[in-house]
Structure prediction request, 356 residues.
Amino acid sequence: MALAPLIGLTTEQLVTVAQEAGAEPYRGKQLAKWIYGKAATTLEEMKDLPSNFRQKLAESYTLSPLSVADHKKSTDGVDKLLVHHGDQQVYECVLLPYTDRVSCCLSSQVGCPMGCTFCATGLGGFDRNLTTSEIVSQYLLLQSLSPRRISHVVFMGMGEPLLNLASLVPAMKIFHEEIGLSYRHLTVSTVGLVPQILELAQLELPIHLALSLHSPHDEIRSRLMPVNNKWNVRETFEAMKVYQKTTGRKITIEYLLIDQLNDTQNQAESLASLVKGVPCVVNLIPFNYVDTSQGFRRPIRERVRAFRQVLESKGVNVTERVERGHDIAAACGQLAGQHTGKFARRDLSNQIPLLS
Ligand code: SAH
Ligand code: SF4
Prediction:
């Protein structure tokens, strides 16, 4: 019989697990402290729990469902792990230490079905959604490597998080209620799924939402992101406005810059008009090279600067993604992509079921 994961259960559920194993309810609370407070990786290290209780638990439960297939350390302090659940379906998570905080980037799916034409993950196809336990386990695994507390989580690893709300929302509740992270420090990045953006808004949690826009013009956005054929720029941005108003949180517009394609002055002007009056930040991301067979290139610095200047001259708040872990291919899907020879290749016929 497969062992059930303890990670991903709330304190309340762990109390029930303890009682079912014949222990006092407070043993469940101790379990929660070990799992979420101390990022314990084995039952053996939980020395203040009676050994017969730990043995009983080990018959039905496992602590960490993740195996590490690869671990790369960057010269700038970034750790990137490629993990799996014993099934060789690999996904990525990244530890990102900064001077003022430690952040981490987590995956929500194995692969991604959205098929964005610039993205290594999208080009690799889709396997499955991750479970709540697998999402929380990525955080705890990274925390066990970090001497400082990880205070921020971004869902910008593999997958489209809003296609997996059923696992994502309980995972975010665990981050908030069990691990003590502020909802304000959780960032969900989406390709732009309108119904799910509205569903997330209805939870009225101050989670930070980022939209991958990448062009204010439908024709170009559709070329980059097939999702735009389902919900266009206007419809998607309207949903983001609802999210902003409902939660009171400033939204982020992510804007990938590809040379001569979406980095024109004209698109900078359209983008400035689109976001006018909406509390938001535009985050510019120069294209990280992936062989897309479309000839996409990264723009030179001057073009990035010129694009930024148009936005700023129109009063838009702009940031630029600080690139980390360049030497270890820390960008979305890149490390897993390098492993497709070693691990099972994903099924490309699974692309974009949502749009069919
Ligand atoms: N599926 C979600 C979150 C994961 S992708 C989304 O698309 O928003 C996280 C971010 O990485 C997105 O903004 C995505 O557009 C960006 N990205 C993907 N491929 C990239 C590349 N080759 N270079 C730079 N950014 C990339
Ligand atoms: Fe999926 Fe995001 Fe990559 Fe698009 S950019 S294919 S939504 S992971």
Remarks:
- Residues 194 and 236 are 6 Å apart (CA to CA).
- The pocket of S-adenosyl-L-homocysteine (ligand 1) is lined by residues 118-119, 156, 160, 189-191, 212, 254, 256, 285, 287-288, 290, 331-332 (CB under 6 Å).
- Residues 339-356 have pLDDT under 50 and may be disordered.
